[in-house]
């Protein structure tokens, strides 16, 4: 019953194309809001539905990270699986019918619509919980829009007008199809501004400790990410350092102990909770092998990636030979939590900002190096920091986004090539006459 209540509110016009238009069925978004939003308990169930949607395989349940790594693979990983949609992503041969691309779009907008429903019913929430509930909904909405605009829009250009098309901004609940429901794509600039607005509000509302749910420092850390993407390095540094200094999180001494855990580690700022009964970890499905609950070892780690590590780098020990190829141990075991944001990332954001602003990122880079068994360096130049990101955050969904924001290339494609941008799903184009497709599709 719990799932029924929030699934009924996950419909959105942008998702309507997921239904067979020839079927005589009532659209999900036409269900009365009073069914689920008539009590404090039910509003919180809809919020829980937002967490459920964002933890599905299309978003933070795995495919969002997997596809970002495939899209930015540049020969460091290889897809050998039989599924055609991931193969098309790594080969930069996607089309608008790619089911994995559609899944990410659909799951993210379902999450957004859950959040919008919660935000529209805050007066029903008991006063003691109202700020927290609002903050969580704003954080989850911001996270979804941030991921969507990075994948479905052209890269953000620091200092530019950023009038290139992003994704549709829907900030109110979609409960029925009207003319207002046919939403156009907002600009990249507009989407990023909304993301920052939501995150800044969330920071002010969320508690510092919120169990397994989003807290104040998750919002601050996400804000640091966004500023880094936008090339706003002082702001990125300030937010990252606030998390480092004030959150109470700490670097786990042994890198291997970060992974394949039932519970969140002291380094995990925000994670997806996965168990045999609930949640998804599709990273295990595709990065792991059958002996550990994976599929067939669909993603193999190539020597060009392994060559990045010094021989005494302890992170090398996490790689293993399985089914005749090298695998990452980050996503080895079934039913384990997925760290979405780690304290190490905050150190790397601060280090990169320092390297760009002052020419030396050693203060925040060296703790990451030393944990990996590497000697400290000074000065730590930008190239040092970027290389460390490739190793420390490997296969955690950062690769294509780092390539885009530093102006790199992938398999000979420039960072802003149409092939590195997801197509708007074909079904969304069919159902919404105001959507404009990306170049090349």
Strand order within the widest sheet?
1-3
Q: How many strand segments?
A: 8
Q: Look at the structure and give the mean pLDDT.
A: 92
β-strand amount? 5-15%
Radius of gyration: 21 Å
How would you characterize the largest beta sheet?
Answer: 2 strands, antiparallel
In helices, the fraction of residues equals 40-55%
CATH-assigned fold name of the domain at 1-206 and 406-432: Serine Threonine Protein Phosphatase 5, Tetratricopeptide repeat
- Just name the CATH architecture of the domain at 1-206 and 406-432: Alpha Horseshoe
Which CATH top level class of the domain at 1-206 and 406-432 fits? Answer: Mainly Alpha
Q: Return residue spans where pLDDT drops below 50 for at least 5 consecutive residues.
A: 1-33
Q: Based on helices, strands and strand pairing, what is the structural class?
A: mainly alpha
Total helices: the number is 16
What's the overall geometry? Answer: globular
Distance between the termini: 40 Å
Written as H for each helix and E for each strand, in order along the chain, the element string is HHHEHHHHHHEHEHEEEHHHHEEH
Word description of this protein:
This protein has a domain at 1-206 and 406-432: Alpha Horseshoe (Serine Threonine Protein Phosphatase 5, Tetratricopeptide repeat), CATH 1.25.40.390. It is globular and about 60 Å long. The two termini are 40 Å apart. By secondary structure, the protein is mainly α. The chain is built from 16 helices and eight strands.
């Amino acid at each position: 019953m719990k799932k029924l209540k929030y699934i009924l509110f996950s419909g959105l016009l942008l998702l309507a194309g997921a239904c067979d238009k020839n079927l005589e069925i009532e659209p999900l978004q036409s269900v009365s809001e009073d069914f689920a939003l008539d009590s404090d308990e039910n509003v919180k169930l809809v919020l829980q539905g937002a967490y459920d949607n964002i933890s599905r395989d299309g978003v933070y349940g795995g495919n969002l990270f997997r596809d970002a790594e495939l899209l930015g693979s540049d020969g460091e990983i290889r897809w050998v699986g039989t599924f055609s949609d991931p193969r098309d992503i790594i080969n930069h041969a996607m089309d608008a019918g790619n089911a994995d691309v559609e899944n990410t779009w659909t799951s993210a907008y379902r999450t957004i619509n859950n959040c919008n429903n919660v935000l529209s019913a805050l007066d029903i929430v008991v006063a003691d919980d109202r700020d927290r509930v609002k903050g969580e909904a704003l954080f989850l909405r911001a996270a979804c829009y941030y991921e969507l605009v990075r994948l479905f829009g052209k890269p953000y250009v620091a200092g530019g007008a950023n009038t290139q098309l992003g994704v549709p901004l829907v900030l109110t609940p979609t409960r029925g199809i009207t003319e207002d429901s046919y939403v156009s794509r907002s600009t990249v600039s507009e989407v990023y501004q909304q993301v920052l607005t939501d995150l800044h509000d969330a920071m002010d509302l969320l508690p510092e400790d919120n169990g397994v749910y989003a807290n104040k420092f998750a919002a601050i850390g996400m804000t640091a990410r966004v500023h880094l993407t936008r090339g706003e390095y002082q702001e990125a540094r300030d937010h990252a350092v606030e998390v480092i200094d004030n959150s109470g999180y700490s670097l786990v001494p042994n890198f291997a102990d970060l992974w394949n855990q039932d519970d969140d580690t002291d380094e995990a700022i925000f994670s997806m909770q996965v168990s045999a009964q609930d949640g998804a970890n599709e990273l295990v499905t595709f990065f792991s092998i059958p002996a550990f609950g994976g599929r067939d070892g669909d993603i193999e780690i190539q020597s060009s990636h392994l060559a990045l590590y010094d021989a005494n780098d302890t992170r090398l020990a996490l790689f293993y030979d399985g089914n005749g190829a090298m695998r990452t141990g980050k996503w080895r075991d079934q039913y384990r939590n997925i760290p979405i944001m780690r304290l190490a990332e905050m150190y790397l954001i601060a280090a990169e900002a320092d390297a760009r602003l002052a020419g030396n990122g050693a203060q925040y880079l060296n703790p990451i190096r030393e944990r990996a068994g590497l000697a400290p360096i000074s000065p730590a130049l930008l190239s040092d920091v970027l290389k460390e990101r490739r190793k420390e955050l490997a296969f955690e969904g950062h690769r294509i986004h780092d390539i885009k924001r530093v102006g790199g290339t992938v398999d000979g494609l420039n960072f802003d090539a149409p092939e590195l941008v997801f197509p708007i799903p074909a079904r969304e184009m069919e159902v919404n006459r105001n959507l404009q497709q990306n170049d090349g599709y």
